[in-house]
Amino acid sequence: MSPEKIIEAGLENFDAVAPGAYYGSAAGLSLGAGLIYAGIQVPFFDTAERRFEIIESLALVITNECDVANERAFDDHVLVCPIIPLRQYAESAIASKEYDHAINLIKEIALNRVNRVFFLPPAPKLLGEIEGLTDGGLMNLNMITATHVDLFKHGARPLCAFSAYAQGRFDRKLEQHLLRPKTELLPRTR
């Protein structure tokens, strides 16, 4: 049982036509949708303590740049989705003795069959070493959260940006996850 087998299961089943076309440079881009940062403070639920803690994470910015820090009301927070490095997930699955389940789940995520999780391929070598994305990553869309724009000025670092191709895939995944019809009907009051 090795993390490499779990990582390989994802990469072998990844359904994108051009995994190398997922990322580009963040140079010259304003804080906004499609940028991946390191050092973002996000809540993480500690199941042993049964409370949230604040951790630093890789994260994809979801909020559009025109809605960020424009000195207008409600422009001081940014929606982000934390990124779980694929190697970290694989090591955690092995430690919790969920190896077989992790292999099967990663295959399904990579094939885009799990609505709540978005698969990220490894960042290409031409962008240099991008911490946390050398083996790829996972984004649990149920962990989308808000963080304050000041954190991007103090400590957070832009690592790279999604390509237009990757942003389009992510937008469709968000739509699929958040806007699909409810399984249970809501009550009608009119």
From TrEMBL:
Transmembrane segments: 20-40
Keywords, in A-Z order: Membrane, Transmembrane, Transmembrane helix
Protein name per Swiss-Prot or TrEMBL: Uncharacterized protein
Originating species: Mesorhizobium australafricanum
